[in-house]
Each structure stands twice: as C-alpha cells, then as structure tokens.
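#help-structures
NK: newbie question, is this the right format to request a structure? protein is Type II secretion system protein F
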Amino acid sequence: MTLSLIWLLSAASAVLLVMGCLWAWRKRYLFFLQGGSSLGQAAWQAWQAPFAQGVSLCLSLPFVHEWSERSWGAYTRQMQAYLGQRVAILILLVTVIGAWYLSWGGALMDILGMAAAGLLLSVLQAASRGRALQRRHHNRCRRDLPFFLDLLVLAVESGLGLQQAWARALEATPQGSLSISLHKVQGELRAGRRLPQAMRKIASTFRVVELEELALSLELAQDTGLSLALLLRSQAEKLRAHLQLEAEQRALKLPVYLLAPLVVCIFPCTFLVIAMSLLGPWLAGGAG
C-alpha cells in the first residue's frame, strides 16, 4: 500500500511537472509568435529560452564568470547564446533518444552518461569557438592598426589634441574588428576615463596586446613630453615590420605544408607512370 502511494505521488508530480513545462512553453511560444517569428522559429525559440537562461545563470557564478571572461573576453554574451543553443539541442536529442532507449529496456544511467558527455563536448566546443573568434579579432586588429596610426599622426600634425585626433581618425577608419575595439575605447572616453586607461581596459577585454603597447607609449609621451606624432609613426612602422616578418615566416613554412600532398598524391602517380613505361614492353612481350 505504501509503495503504491509513493508511485502514485511520483507519477502525479511528474505529470504536474510536464504540464507546467508545457504551459511555460506555450506562453513563450505565443510571445515569440506575436513578435513576428514564424511557427517553427517561435516553437524553437520557446524551447531554447529556458536553457539559455540557465546557461546565463550558471556562467554568472563568481568562479565560472571569471573563467568565461578570461576565455571569451568581449564575446562572452555571444558564446552564452551559442552554448544555450547547443544545450537546447542536446536536451532535445537526449529526450528523444532516451525515450526510445528506455522503451527497449535500456538503463537510465546510460542516458545520464550520454547527456553528461554531450554537455562536456558542448562546453569544449563553445570554448574553442570563443578562442577562435578572439584570435581572428586579434589578427584583424593587428592588420588594420598601422593604418589607424597613420590617420592619427595626420590628425595630430594638423594641430588637434590627442582625444580630438582620436575621434577624427576613428571617423575615417573602415568598419571591422579594429573599429569595434576603437569605438569601445571612445565609449570609455565618454565615461570620463583618460585615453591610455581606456585603451588598456579595452586591450585586456579584447586581448589586443598592441593596443596596450600603444597605451603605454601614449602615457610615456604625455609624461616625458616626447613628440606624439613621431612616437605614433615609429609605432606604426614597428607594427608593419612585425606583420611583414610574420608573413615571411608563414611563406617559409609553405614548402612543409606542400610536402604531404606531394608525397601522397603526386609522387605515387609519377612513379606509376614511370613504372608502366618501363614495364610496358616486358608485359606486352610476356603476353605475346
């Protein structure tokens, strides 16, 4: 009797939980549907929303937040949305496959292990994607920074102050990764920070070492009275020299990358043609 009562209460709790989830999903579905989404998009967004909120809540914990900020930098929110989407897909797949697996007499621990492994892979994939975005952002900033420094030199030599020259050079900078970082610096300037402090903060957020070096150079020029235009021009030339050296190093590595296709594809075909030309008369004579 007691065991039957426990099973009945457990079943009732499960049914109430499922009904509550369906009711919450229905409210979110209607909300996204009224926002202009299609039927399929609204259904998926309603399913994904609670998992995205759960991921955001987990990543806001003190130690986890520090790890995410250090790993993803300015792409933390984008990676949170990406990880929430992956978790939603994972839970959907685990639910469908788990129901089929249990119907064939499978164990619940196997399903939980599969879910834990999928969650770990999702976190590792999000971490790798975030680092790749940061590396791409860093490379683009390093590529475009010398051009911005040239514009800054022209603005300084025309008689503008440092912050006015920064704003004028920023207006002429093409849209891209560097423009995003520089607009963040401009926002810090509007908040009341000095230019070197704002650059150092954005450099730590986006992990652009060159901006931090530029901030140190600007502080040195302001403290010692050095020529700002001369310092910026030397900084641009130094960065161009580094970029040219890295391009030459990549070009020197190209023969190593070409070695594998040569050994695997071209050399066997060449040896086959030579062998057939040498063995062709002998094979024709043997056949005759």
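mod (FA): yep, format's fine, and the tokens are attached above. DSSP finds ten helices and no strands in the chain.
NK: thank you!
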